[in-house]
Specification:
23 strands; alpha+beta; EC 2.6.1.42 (chains A, B); Aminotransferase-like (chains A, B); aminotransferase (chains A, B); pyridoxal phosphate (chains A, B); six-stranded mixed beta barrel; 24% helix; homodimer; 8 helices; D-amino Acid Aminotransferase, Chain A, domain 2; 434 residues
C-alpha cells in the first residue's frame, strides 16, 4: 500500500480554487460584453462549446434578425377581460418564439410559430436536473394607445446571468430583447387590443436543457422559447397581502447558493411552505434568513418596509443584493431609483440586512408605516399583515385601505411610465405590425 | 392612517409555525403508511387534493395491478456491450411506463408502452419551477442467469419522500416497486440478455409537474414515468476518482434546505462547479459545508473515508443524515449495514460530521487509509486524490491500484448480492416474461 500524503499542488491556482464559481461566471458574462470579439482561450469554459463560443467559427451566435415567421392557421379568440385560464391552463397568445441551441453548432434560427406543445425525450436534462431558467416581464397597452415593454434590457441581462449560473448557454441579451419585441409586434395588436388601455400581458422567456442524456452534466443541447400569456391583476388583494414568516426548518436561499438567479430550482422547493401558509389564510411566505431572521423576499417578490427610525427619520428599507440571497428585481431596482430621485428630501432609502425583530420592534413602538412586495407579477402590492411565530404584525394600509401614501406614490409613478402617461426611457414602445 | 400594532395571534399554533414544513412532510408520509385508511381532516394538506387524497372517494390511488400493455411495433436492436448512447443521447429500452395524476381524479391507469417523447405545453410547471424528482437504481443480470433489482423498496420510499418535498403527489411506494418489476419483466430478457451475466441496466423513475399553468404554486397535474437506460460502468476509473473541493462561493445544500431529497433542484445548480473541476482534470466536486468545511458528498454520491484515529482505531466514517444535508443513499446505507454486520471486529463505523481539515491531518500523519464514493451510478468507486485549495491529498489505492482492501471487500460483498452469487434478501428477483 502506498503511503498517503499531502503535497502542495503545482498545477492549480489557489486563488481560483476559492473563487472558482464567481470568477467563471464573471468571465463568461464579460465575454459577452466584448461585442463577441473575445478570442483569448484562457478561460477553461470557452473550450467546451459552452460560453458564447465565438472562438469557434462554426458556432453561431444568437441573432434575432434571422427570425422566420410561420403564422397560425387556427387563431384563437381573445377571452373577455378577467379570464386568464381554461381548466387550470394558462391562456397563451397565438404564437411563440423558439430558438434551439447545441454545443456543436451554437444558436439556430429563431422561429416565430404557432403556440403549441414541446416534444421532449423522457431523458431530457430539464426533466431531471432542473437545467432551466426564466424571466417574467409585461407588455402594457398604454392610455396613449401604444404598446410598451418596461425595461426589457434589465430582464434580458438577468436572463443571461441565470442561464450561465445553471450551466445553460450564453447569448447577447440585446438579441433576446429584440425577440420579445418581435413577438409583441405580431401578437400585441390582437391580444392587447387598443380599446383596452391599462391592460397588460405577461411575457415568459424560458431556457431549458434538452439534451436527451442522463448523467449529471451540463446539457449540450438547449431550447430558448418566449411565450406571452394572460395573467390576472395581483397588486391589490382585498385587505392587502398577508405574509407568514418561513418556518425554522425551511430556508429559501443561502449564501453561496443561487437565490439571486431566476432558476427553477428556487421555486419548486418553496412550494411546500407556501401551500401550508395558504391553507392557513396567508398569501405568501416572508422568507427569513439565518438565526438572526433577516427579511429577504415575500413569496417570489422583493420586500420593502417603510418605517420611522428611532432617530425619527422616515426610511424605506429593503434587503441588499451583495450577499446574493435575493433576486435582483427589476421592479425593486426601479422603486429604489425613483425613491432616490424623487423622494430624497422626504425619506432615506436604504439597502441593508434587517431582521424581523426590527420590524416587530418598529411595530410595537408605532414606527412601522408601510410595507409592500415588489415584483413583475405582484407589481407593487401593499402588505397589511405579517404573522411571525405567535404574533400578528399589523401594517397600516392608508386612508382608502389600498396601501400607504408612499406605496401608492411609487406605484403611481411606475404605472405612469408603463402605460405611457409620461414619456420615460424605461418604457420601450413596440412597433406593432398593424 | 391606522396605527401599526403587534398582537398575539389567536388562530394559529405557535409550535406549528416553527416546524411547519417537517410536520407537514411527516404527516403526509405517515398518512401513506396507514394503509390508505386515514380519514381525519386535521391536516391542512389533505383538503387540497394533494396528499394521497383518500378522504375523497373519487380520487384514485396509484394501483400497479391496473397496468395496461401496448407493445412496440418498432423494436430496436440491443447495442453491443460498451455502447450506451447515440449522438449524445442515452439509449433507452423499447418500453416505458407512464402514469398521469391530477388533483381532481388522482392516479390514472399505469401504461406500459413504446418508449418515446413526452408532449408538454411550454407553460408546464416542471419547465419553470423545477417541480421534479427522480430515482436511480439498477437491474442486474446475475451469474445464475436471474435478473435482480437491488433494494427497490428503499428507492420507492425515497421517491415518495422527494415527491412530497417538491409538492408533487404521494403514492404507496410498493406500487412503484411493482411497476419497476413490470417494466423489467418485459424489457429485461431482451436488453439484459442471459448471455451477458455481470451486466446491468439503469432504471429511472421520474415524477414531473405537468400542469400548464404559470404561477408559483403546487401543480395540480403530474406525470410519473419509469424508463430503463444503458449506462457505462463508472466504478473503476483508471487511477481512481479525483475530487476537487467545492469553492468558497458555492454551497450544494444547507440546513433547512432540500439536500436530502432527490429533486432536480439539487443537480442543475451544481453543474457549474463540476464543469470547472472537470476542465481542470478532476472527476467530481467534494462538497464542503460551512466555514468548518464539513465533508458531505462527492459529486452526486455519498463519500466515505477510512482512517486510523489518533488512538489507533481503524474507522470508516461518513457524513450523518440527521442534519438533512446529504442524500440518504441506498448504497451508503448498504455499505454501513454490511460494515457493521461483518467488520465490527476490525473497524469502527461512524456517521458524524467531519471536516476536510481532519482528512488533511490524517493524511499528513500517515493515518489516511482509503476513501470511496458510494452511489447507484458510481457504485463503490475508489478515490485516489482530493485537491483542496493549494494542496493535493493522495489516498492509497491498494496493491493492484483498484482501491484499498476494505473498499474492495465491501464492493465485492455488494456485487455478490446484486449478481446472485449469494442469496440475500436485498436482491429481488424479477419474474421475466420469457
Amino acid at each position: 500500500m502506498s503511503p498517503s500524503a499531502v503535497v502542495p499542488s503545482t498545477v492549480h491556482d489557489g486563488e481560483q480554487d476559492v473563487n472558482l464559481t464567481a470568477s467563471a461566471i464573471d468571465h463568461r458574462l464579460t465575454e459577452n460584453d466584448q461585442s463577441n470579439g473575445s478570442t483569448n482561450g484562457q478561460n477553461a469554459l470557452s473550450s467546451n462549446g459552452q460560453g458564447n463560443g465565438v472562438a469557434q467559427p462554426n458556432v453561431q451566435e444568437l441573432n434575432a434578425s434571422n427570425i422566420t415567421y410561420t403564422f397560425t392557421k387556427e387563431p384563437r379568440d381573445v377571452p373577455p377581460p378577467g379570464v386568464h385560464s381554461i381548466d387550470g391552463s394558462t391562456i397563451s397568445t397565438d404564437h411563440m418564439i423558439t430558438v434551439a441551441w447545441s454545443a456543436k453548432s451554437g444558436w439556430g434560427t429563431p422561429e416565430l410559430k404557432p403556440y403549441g406543445p414541446l416534444s421532449l425525450m423522457p431523458t431530457a436534462s430539464v426533466l431531471h436536473y432542473a437545467t432551466e431558467c426564466f424571466e417574467g416581464l409585461k407588455a402594457y397597452r398604454g392610455f396613449d394607445g401604444k404598446l410598451r415593454l418596461f425595461r426589457p434590457d434589465c430582464n434580458a441581462e438577468r436572463f443571461l446571468m441565470s442561464s450561465v449560473r445553471i450551466s445553460l448557454p450564453s447569448f447577447p441579451p440585446a438579441e433576446v430583447e429584440k425577440l420579445l419585441l418581435a413577438l409583441m409586434a405580431v401578437d400585441g395588436p390582437k391580444w392587447l387590443p387598443r380599446d383596452r388601455p391599462g391592460s397588460f400581458i405577461y411575457l415568459r422567456p424560458t431556457l431549458i436543457g434538452t439534451q436527451s442524456q442522463l448523467g449529471v452534466q451540463a446539457p449540450a443541447e438547449a431550447l430558448l422559447y418566449i411565450i406571452a400569456t394572460l395573467m390576472p391583476v395581483m397588486d391589490s388583494p382585498v385587505g392587502g397581502m398577508k405574509l407568514h414568516t418561513s418556518p425554522d426548518d425551511m430556508v429559501r436561499a443561502w449564501v453561496g447558493g443561487f437565490g439571486y438567479a431566476k432558476v427553477g430550482a428556487n421555486y419548486g422547493p418553496s412550494l411546500l411552505a407556501t401551500q401550508e401558509a395558504r391553507a392557513r389564510g396567508f398569501g405568501q411566505i416572508l422568507w427569513l434568513y439565518g438565526s438572526e431572521g433577516y427579511c429577504t423576499e415575500a413569496g417570489a417578490s422583493n420586500f420593502f418596509v417603510l418605517w420611522k427610525t428611532k432617530e425619527g427619520k422616515t426610511q424605506l428599507i429593503t434587503a441588499p443584493l451583495d450577499d446574493r440571497l435575493i433576486l435582483p428585481g427589476v421592479t425593486r431596482r426601479s422603486v429604489l431609483q425613483l425613491a432616490r430621485e424623487r423622494l430624497s428630501d422626504e425619506i432615506e432609502v436604504v439597502e441593508r440586512r434587517y431582521t424581523i425583530k426590527e420590524v416587530l420592534e418598529a411595530s410595537s413602538e408605532g414606527r412601522l408605516l408601510e410595507s409592500f412586495a415588489a415584483g413583475t407579477a405582484f407589481f407593487v402590492c401593499p402588505v397589511s399583515l405579517i404573522h411571525h411565530r405567535e404574533q400578528d404584525i399589523q401594517i397600516p394600509m392608508g386612508k382608502a385601505g389600498e396601501g400607504g401614501p408612499y406605496t401608492l406614490k411609487l406605484k403611481g409613478w411606475l404605472k405612469d411610465i408603463m402605460y405611457g402617461n409620461v414619456d420615460h426611457p424605461w418604457g420601450i414602445v413596440v412597433q406593432e405590425e398593424h
